[in-house]
Structures are given as C-alpha cells and as structure tokens.
Amino acid sequence: MTDTIRVMWVAAPYNLQKYRSITRYFPSDMSVQVVSGALAFNGKIPLLGKMRGDRHWFMPNTALFRELRRFQPDIVFTDFPTYPGLYAKMYSYLSAKRKPLVSWLLGDFWTEYDVYVREVKLRDRWQATVSLVTWVTGIKRSDRLLTVCRWLMRRAAEVIPQTKMSVLYNGIEPDLWLVNDGRFEFDHPAVGILQNNVIKPKVMGLLRFSEVIQTMPDVNFYVAGGGPYTQLVRDAFHGLTNVRMLGTLAYPNEVRRFYRSCDVYVLASGLDCCPSSLLEASLASVPVVASRVGGIPELVKEGETGWTIPNASVDDWTRKIRTLLEDRGLATRMGAHGKEHVLRNFTWRRQAQMLANVFETLIR
Hints:
Layout: E1 5-11, H1 16-21, E2 30-36, E3 43-44, E4 55-56, H2 63-71, E5 75-78, H3 83-95, E6 101-105, H4 109-119, H5 125-141, E7 144-147, H6 150-159, E8 165-167, H7 174-177, E9 190-194, H8 200-208, H9 210-214, E10 220-224, H10 230-237, E11 243-247, H11 253-260, E12 264-267, H12 276-283, E13 288-291, E14 306-309, H13 314-326, H14 328-345, H15 348-363
Parallel strand pairs: 1-2, 1-5, 5-6, 6-7, 7-8, 9-10, 9-12, 10-11, 12-13, 13-14
Antiparallel strand pairs: 3-4
C-alpha cells in the first residue's frame, strides 16, 4: 500500500458542496474525492427497452462503479449507503483487495420510512419499499457504521446488532456563522423557530408546540422554514396572533440574520439526531430551548448552554423560555457558553480529524 490513503466520499447530492468544502481539513497523507451518490441511481428497468420514461430514480446506475474503478480508492465512505454500498463491495471483490466500506447514518431512517410508507398512495409504496430494502442492505454491508449521535447508535443496534458502530457527530463551519451582518426588525421579546418541515415525525413536535405559544400571548414567535408539511404547521398556528410565519429563508445569509434577531432559539421537534440549527444558533450566541428527544440532549449542556424539555411539558417550556426572556444576564451567559461548546466540540475541522482516525484504523 502507498503512504497516501485514497478515500472516495460518496455523498447525498444535497450535501455535495458542503462535504467538498471540508476536505481541506483531512491530513496531507489522505486524498479525499467527494462524488455524488446520484451516480448510482436513475437506471433502467430491465427488459423495458426504449419505453418512454424507462429511467427511474430508484434503479441502479453503473456510473458510480466506473468512477470507483477510475479513482481506485483504498476506502469508501458514504452517507448514502444504498447502491453505493453495493458498488463499493463489488469493487472490493473485483480488485481482490480489502476495501473497507464506512457508512454514516444521519437519522432514524426506520421511523421516518415507517411513517412515510403509511402516507403514500398504495401504488407508490413498492418504490418506498425498494428504497428501504436497498438502504438497509447497504448499511449491513458496511465494515463500520458511524451514527450521528449516541441515541441513534442505540437505535441502530436494535435493528442491526451485528454491525460495528461508533459515533461521529455532524459538523459545522464556524466562519459562516460568526459574521455579524445585521438583524431583522423583529418585535421583542422574540423567540425564533427555524425548522424544515420535510419529515413528519419531526414536524409533530412543532405542531404540539402551539400549546406553548398559546400560554405566552405577550411573546412574539417568528417561525421560518419550508417543506411539504408546512401547511400542517400553518394550520396548527392559525389564529395565534403572536406568530409570524416567515417561510423559507435564504441560506446562509438570511438564516444567520434570523438567529441574531432572536432572544431565544426554540427547536420543538418530535424526532432529531444532530440538528444543525442548534449548532448554528449557538454560534450566534443565542440560548436554546429544545425538545428532549433523540440526540438533542447530546448537543445541549443542560442549564449551561440551554435546556431540553419533554414535548408534553407545556409548563416547563413556558417557564424556561420566560426565564431566558426575563433574565438577560442569564441568556447572555448561556449564549456565550453555547458558542464555546460548539467551537470546542462540533467544528468540521474536529469532525474531519476524527473521521480520518477511523479511516486510518481500518486501513493501517
């Protein structure tokens, strides 16, 4: 083996640019190439020939396999472990050398798909089933599974107990969030909520939070985010005169200004593992109050950088938010501690170093 470790990072398409930007943090003896996981999809259904629409997003495509043979990596890393996992193992077999596959699990895929499959039309469920089966199969092929929090590692161990696992938290690029480029003209006291309404189990926590808002008519709640379940949020908050629905904000500039405009940031989620918004708000020195679900408590130092609250505890939500709004000295201290906590534990520089250690352990 040469002194340089060659790593192919197969990324979900929406993470491609972000992951490419952090390759500079890997050690000099590691050559990392980031490619899109979409290279493994959008293939043809066999025997259908040239029929109109014969390419489908859920069918395998061999473009990724060709890229593997061209780059010849020593290790494959992916957050998209369906067909990429299959091609990584095929490449390892054909090269007659051990090429470890490392998969990164970013969320509770099982719960998300269980809810999704129940909601889609019957004729579309078979496609969802194909996605689930190929995804789980890809995870099981992995030589090492990294989960984005300890809670998710325990969840995954219930389903695939034979897979070797460890934790790699999501990272954040501090320079992007330390810029102070102004604020929105919010009425104060202002509580900010920014959530993408894409995964229904997560959205359910936000819907329930309407009960908290009703108890605080003198507080202004600014709610940002989009996605297919946004109308559910609008319906739940309908009639609440202290709520301002902002829609989708431009990332990162408007999102950064949003955090800095708020006195408190709230994440009311029904399911979350390592939400970036908590890290982003903390870098803006904003104290956080968040749902005590999934991996969220692993990101918050209880009573020091913020608080976590069970979703059903309306009184606790109200009390903690009011405490921060009324005691600005405490809010300032918590915000400062939150910023320090993120800079110490969750930067991409640190996460890349930890990931490099995993690669070296598997290769050396």
